[in-house]
Write a structure and sequence with these properties.
This protein has 485 residues and is an alpha/beta fold. It is 36% helix and 20% strand. The chain has a domain of 262 residues: Rossmann fold (3-Layer(aba) Sandwich), CATH 3.40.50. Helix 5 crosses helix 12, helix 9 packs across helix 10 and helix 10 packs across helix 14.
Length: 485
C-alpha cells in the first residue's frame, strides 16, 4: 500500500507490496512540480553514487551494523541495526532474493540528495531510494515499486492507449491547490462543453501516480480514456505519498486520512467548483484496492456523492491481508524455505502486535509491520462493509467489482461486500472470472488468462483494464444519472 519511507519508518514494504503492487513513482506523460516532488539532479555526484553502492552492498551482504553506521541521528534512532535487518529480511521474504541493479539516477529536493537504484529482485523490480543529508549521512530509506524519472514511468514507452479509447480532452489541474498538500492531476473529459457526470479515481496504496502505473500498465489511464469516451469526466491525481514524499516521511502520526481520504475529498470539491466541467450533482468516486476499501469512508466526508464504485476493495483488516498474502507468496512454488519460514514467523508476530487490544500509540513502527501505530489505531474501528451498508440504506448507489483471480484482495472480500449489502436495491455486484487485481487478464494481448490465482509477475505483462470493466462502470454511472431526477 504505501512505500517504506524510513525517516523514521512511516509505512511498510509489507503494506506497499501487499495491497497495492500498483504503485509507481511516475506520472505518466505529465510532469510533477519540482516544488513538491523530487527533482532530477542536473549532474551526477560520483561520491553519492559510491556511498549508495556501498550501502546497498552492505544490505545484500547482511552487514547491518556497518550499514546502519552510515545513518544520521534520526535514522539511527528509528532504524537501529536489528530493525534494519528485520526490514530487509521482510522485504526479501516478499519479493525474493536481490539479483542485480537495472538502472540508477539521482534527485535533489529540499536540501536532500537521493540516489535511486532500480533493482531486480527474484519476484519484482524495486526502487531502492537512499536519501543523503548535506553531510552525506543517510537520512532516509525507501523501498518502492520500480519507477522512472519524475513525470515518466520507467516503462512509459511500452504503454499504448486501449482500443476502447475514443477522442477525449485532457487538461492539467491541481487538487487541493489552496491547501498544504497540492497535488498535480489530470482531468479527462469528453469532447465538448459539458456538463458531464464525473468520477474521481482513488488509487491503492503506495506512492501512486495519477495513472496508477505499475510496470508497463496504467489502469487509471485506461479507465480515464474509456470512461471519457462514453461521456463521463474523470479526475485522477498523483497521491500525496508521491508528490510530497519527503514531507510525508517526516510525519509521526500518519493515518489513512493523510494518505488517501483528505485528498479524495479535495478532488470531489475541485469538481464541484467547476460546473463547466462536471455536473456538480453527479459526482462519483471510484476506489481501487485501498481506495476501494476507503471509498465508504470518503463518502461519509464528501457529502452528496452520486455513487461509489468499489474495485478490488478489501473488507478484511489490512493486517489479515498482509499475512494472507505473505503466506500465499511464500508457498506458491510448493516449497517454503527456511528463510521464508523465518519471514512468516516475523510477520505473524507483528500482526499479533497490531491486533493487540492494548496497542500502545508509542509502539515503534518496526514492530508493527513497519507502519506507525497511529495508522493501525485509525483503521481498527473502521468497518468498510458496515459503513457501505449504512450508506446504501440512505439510498447511495454502490457498485462492487472484483477480479476472480486476484490474489491480493480475493473473492472472500467480494462475498463480504455482498453479505453486508444484501437486499439493498441501490447496491450492485459483478465479478470477472479471468481478471487479476489490476482488472486485467495478466496475459499478452490475444492470449487466455493464466490458470489459477494470479501472481505479481502478471503486473509486468503489458495490458489494459478489461473493456467489460470499463463498460460496467460507465453503465452504472450513466444509469444513475439518467434515472435520478
Amino acid at each position: 500500500m504505501s512505500p517504506i519511507p524510513v525517516r523514521p519508518v512511516r509505512a511498510a514494504i509489507l503494506a506497499a507490496l501487499a495491497l497495492a503492487l500498483t504503485a509507481c513513482g511516475g506520472g505518466g506523460d505529465t510532469a510533477t512540480s519540482p516544488a513538491t516532488t523530487p527533482a532530477a539532479a542536473a549532474t551526477v555526484d560520483p561520491e553519492l553514487d559510491r556511498l549508495a553502492t556501498e550501502f546497498i552492498d552492505l544490505l545484500v551482504a547482511g552487514e547491518f551494523e556497518t550499514a546502519a553506521a552510515t545513518f544520521d541521528d534520526t535514522m539511527t534512532e528509528a532504524l537501529p541495526p536489528a530493525a534494519l535487518a528485520r526490514t530487509w529480511e521482510q522485504l526479501i521474504g516478499r519479493v525474493g532474493a536481490y539479483q542485480s541493479e537495472v538502472s540508477r539516477r539521482q534527485e535533489s529536493t529540499g536540501g536532500y540528495d537521493a540516489v535511486i537504484a532500480t533493482s531486480r529482485f527474484e519476484r519484482s523490480d524495486l526502487d531502492i531510494r537512499v536519501v543523503f543529508d548535506a553531510e552525506r549521512r543517510i537520512a532516509g530509506l525507501f523501498f518502492q515499486p520500480a519507477s522512472g524519472t519524475p513525470g515518466e514511468s520507467a516503462t512509459a514507452e511500452a504503454w499504448e492507449a486501449p482500443s476502447y479509447a475514443g477522442e477525449v480532452e485532457r487538461r492539467e489541474v491541481t487538487v487541493g491547490a489552496d491547501g498544504d498538500w497540492p497535488l498535480p492531476g489530470t482531468l479527462t473529459t469528453p469532447v465538448g462543453s459539458g456538463p458531464w457526470p464525473a468520477v474521481v479515481l482513488v488509487q491503492g496504496s503506495g506512492p501512486n501516480d495519477r495513472d496508477e502505473t505499475i510496470g508497463p500498465n496504467k489502469p487509471f489511464r485506461d479507465l480515464a480514456l474509456g470512461l471519457a469516451s462514453q461521456g463521463i469526466a474523470v479526475l485522477a491525481y498523483d497521491k500525496r505519498t508521491l508528490a510530497h514524499q519527503t514531507e510525508m516521511a517526516a510525519l509521526t502520526d500518519i493515518t489513512v486520512a493523510e494518505e488517501v481520504v483528505d485528498d479524495a475529498v479535495a478532488a470531489v470539491d475541485l469538481l464541484r467548483a467547476d460546473p463547466a466541467v462536471a455536473d456538480p450533482g453527479r459526482i462519483f468516486v471510484l476506489g481501487h484496492s485501498l481506495g476501494g476499501t476507503l471509498a465508504p469512508r470518503i463518502a461519509t466526508e464528501a457529502d452528496g456523492l452520486a455513487g461509489l464504485v468499489i474495485v478490488a476493495g478489501a473488507v478484511r483488516p489490512l493486517e489479515e491481508l498482509i499475512l494472507f498474502q505473505t503466506r500465499y507468496l511464500a508457498g506458491r512454488d510448493g516449497t517454503v524455505t527456511a528463510e521464508e519460514e523465518a519471514a512468516l514467523a516475523e510477520v505473524e508476530a507483528q500482526v499479533d502486535a497490531v491486533r493487540d487490544p492494548a496497542l500502545d500509540p508509542a509502539t515503534p513502527a518496526d514492530q508493527l509491520l513497519g507502519v506507525p501505530a497511529s495508522y493501525w489505531l485509525d483503521l481498527r474501528d473502521y468497518r468498510p462493509a458496515e459503513v457501505a451498508a449504512g450508506l446504501a440504506v440512505g439510498g447511495l448507489p454502490i457498485l462492487v467489482l472484483q477480479g476472480e483471480r486476484d490474489y491480493q484482495v480475493t473473492m472472500t472480500d467480494f462475498a463480504l461486500w455482498e453479505q453486508a449489502l444484501a437486499g439493498r436495491e441501490s447496491a450492485g455486484f459483478r465479478s470477472f472470472p479471468g481478471l487479476n487485481h489490476l482488472m486485467m487478464t495478466g496475459a499478452p494481448e490475444g492470449e487466455d488468462p493464466p490458470a489459477g490465482t494470479s501472481t505479481p509477475e502478471e503486473y509486468e505483462v503489458p495490458g489494459h483494464v478489461a473493456p467489460e470493466v470499463v463498460d460496467a462502470v460507465a453503465d452504472f454511472i450513466i444509469r444513475e444519472v439518467v434515472t435520478k431526477p
